[in-house]
Write a structure and sequence with these properties.
Length: 296
Amino acid sequence: MAERITRVGLTAKRGLTAASGVLVELACWLEARGVQPIFESDTARLAGRPPDALAASRDQLPRACDLLVVLGGDGTLIGVADLIARLGTDVPILGVNYGSLGFLTEITLPELYDALEATFAGTAEIESRAMLASRTTRDSAAFAEHIVLNDIVITKGAMSRIIEVAVAVGDEAVTRIRADGMIIASPTGSTAYNLAAGGPIVHPAVDAMVLTPIAPHTLTNRPVVIPGGSEIHLRPIMEPDDQVFVTFDGQSGFPMRPGDVVSVSRASRVIRIVRSPRRSYFELLRTKLKWGGDNR
């Protein structure tokens, strides 16, 4: 990172009281180095900051800082990443793991200050992660647009029967899948819902997207990895009383209507994430997925 960091945003998972002491200590550590900590408003209350302390709302924070430190799990970081993309900023994220998996918030508490020192010195690896852009068309007009880090998911309602989804890549029809749903995942999202549904793990440096059916009715419907420059179109085959939902990174969504089409392509924006200085991507997989060695 060539630019000098003078302001660091601090945000934590809502209600994460375990992070209160760390936030106070971190703010003091930053101030001792001439760096201004800027708390997200709810996080400021979590840390017991005085009412007149410098803070910013969730929507203001990414534009008010040079680096954003996120304390929580992957879901917390994903929410912040989607917000950054929506606001059109490119502030890097340093995720500190308070969750159970931590494929994205991979920096542990003991590594926090080493990672910050490396980031301030410009020696930290800051990885660009591809995002997905989604456009939903309803009645031949744009209805909703989203940018996500992990995935776009079409699923049936809790009490609904199997749904049918027509899948096209570009102008070419691919298939019609009968299943509980369909996942379109980025390489980053390949270790999320896609992995649980039996999809492949895709290295984040690979320019690709993954189409993974959820519990397909026909076992020959398998996950497919396609080029990252493709545009995917998903159209549920629905009756008026069918319950079909589309969700975006598990953060937002809405019920679909007959005729709706969800189109997904690689977003023009990327998210920048500070990598742990102590482990590679494959070491991260070995640790989190308990592959071999001493991780049994």
